[in-house]
Amino acid sequence: MKDDDRPLMAELLGVDAPWKVMDVQRSSGTQTVTVHIERPPPHPGLFSRRAVVPVRRQLRWEHVTLAGWRCRVQVGLRDGDALPATAWTGEEAPGYTRGLQRLIMDLLLAGATTEQLSVLLKLPFADLWRHKFRLDQGRNTTALPAPSGLPAEGSPLWPALLMGRVSLDVKALGLRLLLAKLQREAALHGDADLHRQAAQELHRYFLRSQAVLRHEIAQLPGLTAQVPAAMERAVAAPVARAAAVSAAGMRSSAAQGFELPDATDPLWLALLEGECSLDVRALGLRLLLTQLRSQIRVIEDSDVRMLKLVEIHRYFSRHQGALGYEISQLRNWRAH
Amino acid sequence: MSTKTSLQHRLMSLAQATELIRAGRPCCMAADEALLRRLPRGPWIGGTIPYFMAERGTTTRDALFVTELPIAGSGPRIMRYDRKSLERVCTDGPEHGFTLIVMPAFSSAHEAFAQEAPGYAEMYLRPLVGWVSGVHLDDLGRVKPLVFDGSTGLALEDGAVAMHVPVPADKMVHVDIVNPVSPETGPAIEFTQGGFSAGDCRIDGRSHNLHDWMVERGFNTQLPLVADYCGALVNVCIKKLDAQSRRVEFYAPVFPGTVYRPARPVGNYVSAFASALASHQIPGEQVFSCNCVLNYAYGGLEGKTVSVQGPATFGEIAYQLLNQTLVYLSLVDEGQ
User: Domain range for residue B140?
Assistant: First the structure.
């Protein structure tokens, strides 16, 4: 790749100053592009002697494919350089960049299998399987460290988002699912403490995923300005809202047959947390449910917890025909 | 309970088994190595074992237990796995069907599967059954268990062979287990580290050494530890108490975060099986089953009649590795 491709690569990856794309290498044989990124040392001044400040550490990660080519990011760190928390970096150990981790998580949440991910992202199946295994053990997170710039945890924006009083255009699938789940849970109960905890969880998610939520974060200042008016409208119409929620519940429970609720329905979390006991006859479900229940006890990351809900939902969807006994109990929960 | 089947599932002679293979009928064979080596190439997989629950419990090197498998769609597909590629076994399974796998006892594939299978991609979503091949107990330590890929005639000491079997769209796959033992209501044993052996553990919340605890109690090592997976009782059998290392060795791994309890003493295995089977209606058409050689040996099943037939193996697989358990798979009409 030519030297003048470096600005294009910086733009594609979102590399901003003081970090700079120093070199781009490509291998046609393996269809791999390797991007070298560093923070150039400050210019020594016109008359000072240029002292060479060596790169002390090289960190490497796999990044999201570029036009079908595998992309590897290599970051050189000099003494005093702190690893930036961006979509094109990962943890100190080799692995995936945060951007790739985010994409993998979104695809898993959308129901993609490890094999599909392997084909789609051109990543070895074994590496993906190990990544997923660590997620299941609560050892990997999809999170970023906490930089600043977001509304504070106590901002009225978070409860307003939680209660759906301001409308956010969400592109990131993980956030879309989490927000839907939290909103549905909040609509089910009126406990102020639980609402506060849910708003904190939402704030925490934004804080930890900033590098991959640029589109959503850009809307927050505007939404924050809308909150006071939205709260006034909400105070004026609580009865109407409660009636709407109740009517929606009535419609679903009165519907003929039983449509499996989607993965954001609080029923699935209640099932995994053992709040509702289910008498299970299917061996596969017995084993899976035991595994998911033990995993969700140790997983703190919101995305990975959401993934567990997607997995139990996927099992029920796939085996609906053989799970009549278990699904009839879910129907009864919904009815009561 | 019904064991009616149109597919062959019985002990037969070499000539009869050869005839089935030559007719292109996909099969899983269980027999002595010498017989398996004399079978023609064709659509079969197999493993070594001389113990069978046929019309009566039988030990023989002169007959094969043949499990014929259904033909649907593109037909069954045979695949070989090493300990690394085993993690793909569920992913390789048919979209609608099941996978039957055989692996040799004491091999690295066996060990990897035992410890890692619960975390495999697509585990529990696609039905997986099978067994662990072994040897005559008189040959332990002298002869190695083997598995065979009949399509090539290849015999493996390490690795696994699997047949991925599609089933007709109007059939559902049902996998279940019959366990003649049940847990005591007594002490709850938990491990902080998983594996095939354990020393330190917590018993009813207090720190103990499992070996010392079992010795003090005069623990009957013919009885397994039992874990309750949402109603599925999963055994872990005890191989030996090692006084030198003060550890207990198992035939299957224990997992951290799982509560194990000692099994209740079983007075008479034959009647315990009869009683467990009586309360267990096998739905649809039975295709596959296997039982454990420990049930065969401890229960004195030689010459006795147990209504579900199959090889008596060194480990049973119903999704994950099991011990001292009967596993079966049946095909149930959609809507039944």
Answer: 9-178+270-333
